[in-house]
Amino acid sequence: MVRRRFAAGDHLTPMNTITRTAATSLLGLVSVGLVAPSAVAAPAPAPSESEHPVLTAEKPWVIGHRGASGHRPEHTLEAYELAVRMGADIMEPDLVSTKDGVLVARHENEISGTTDVADRPEFADRKTTKTIDGAELTGWFTEDFTLAELKTLRAKERIPEVRPGNTQYDGLYEVPTFAEVIELRERLSAETGREIGIIPEIKHPSYFDGIGLSMEESVVAQLEEADLNHADAPVMIQSFEVQNLLDLNRNLDAEVPLVFLAWYEGKPWDHEAGGDPRTYADLMTAEGLQELSKDVDAIGPEATMVVPVAEDGTLQEPTSLVQDAHAAGLLVTPYTLRAENNFLPASLQSSEDPAEHGDMTTLVHAHLDAGVDGVFSDHPAAAVEARTSWAGENPVIDTGVQADSHRGQALAAGAALLLTGSLLVRRTARRA
């Protein structure tokens, strides 16, 4: 099938808008129990024999932010695996490039805070100062190391003052490649009987493109190689910039859902560098979301953009962001919900000890009450427990592949609605 590419000035047709709005509205009715799945879906077909079936995690999703980074050094295979073992539906690797063009998982390309590189005398001469997205940074950068060199380093806890327990794992784990994360997903899906998702974030895309290490092509190629570049694959691709998501959608044959990440202030760096006046706030308006929906399938806003926090540290009523995004046919997965007092609003803190855990459950419940489609958390077990307690009053559809026979039709119908009716309809309408 020849896929239509969007050009500048293209707009959604009324039929596309109606289709997307209807799918999202129907999804919402089913997920809160107002419409039974059997009322809106045909009897379930036989279970799919596909090696990569539709992502069938319970929804709202719990996404292991950098893995179970509240319990292990972030962006290690061990952190990702622990997140899944704790019940996370999706694991999130941030991607940067090595000197030889290999994608590896680090939160930033400057790695002195997350590896032992500063203690390695053989790499002392690699320390340098660079400007990344307008900020001057001094340290060691992945793009100055080959993969073989990076593999000699060991990960360490990024914030030991808040997570002292994680320091016992310093020096034990390697820097993983994206290929290794994909392999881990396959293994954990087989071992757990759940189709585990991955939601890679492409870090600093304009910067890496500018030094000849563009990552988008490699992301798509590796997904293709793993038979994961299709609309029902358990994969989504994220970015804080706009242009690389447009490129993925229009030029690079990315078939998986795309997620635009938003901070509560400032601009995407590609807008800043290119003179585009639109800020993150502009893009999160109803009009901005409609424009984004031509190329992306979901947004990942900073959590206070969904549930604001007052100056006295109390949670406020949700903004209209979730409602506006759903009206545009976009899913919403805010970040990052953490258990430590250091990160919680004052009203949810348990003490003045920044490392002690407070009341993350209330924060999760507030976001689920706002209608989000998933949450990023450093503490997946606590987030899953919070989702479970929330579901006692607000049932969600368990769309597990391994369904009991007496529940099979309803669960399969729920799965079809959750993704086929939301992401697949959207991507087919946009890309056919």
From TrEMBL:
Q: Which reaction does it catalyse?
A: a sn-glycero-3-phosphodiester + H2O = an alcohol + sn-glycerol 3-phosphate + H(+)
One Pfam family recorded for the sequence: GDPD
Enzyme Commission number, as recorded: 3.1.4.46
- List, alphabetically, the CDD domains matched: GDPD_ScGlpQ1_like
Q: Does the keyword Glycosyltransferase apply?
A: no
- Listed GO cellular component terms? periplasmic space
Top enzyme class of this protein?
A: hydrolase
Domain GP-PDE residues, every copy: 60-387
Domain of life where this protein originates: Bacteria
Please name the InterPro entries in this protein's record: GP_PDE_dom (IPR030395), PLC-like_Pdiesterase_TIM-brl (IPR017946)
Q: What UniProt keywords are attached to this protein's entry?
A: Glycerol metabolism, Hydrolase, Signal
Membrane as a keyword of this entry, yes or no, is no
MF terms per GO, please?
glycerophosphodiester phosphodiesterase activity
Which Gene3D superfamilies does UniProt cross-reference here?
Phosphatidylinositol (PI) phosphodiesterase (3.20.20.190)
| Biological process, per Gene Ontology | glycerol metabolic process; lipid metabolic process
Q: In the record, which residues are listed under signal peptide? A: 1-41
Family (UniProt): Belongs to the glycerophosphoryl diester phosphodiesterase family.
- PANTHER family linked: GLYCEROPHOSPHODIESTER PHOSPHODIESTERASE GDPD5-RELATED (PTHR43620:SF7), GLYCEROPHOSPHORYL DIESTER PHOSPHODIESTERASE (PTHR43620)
Q: What is this protein called?
A: glycerophosphodiester phosphodiesterase
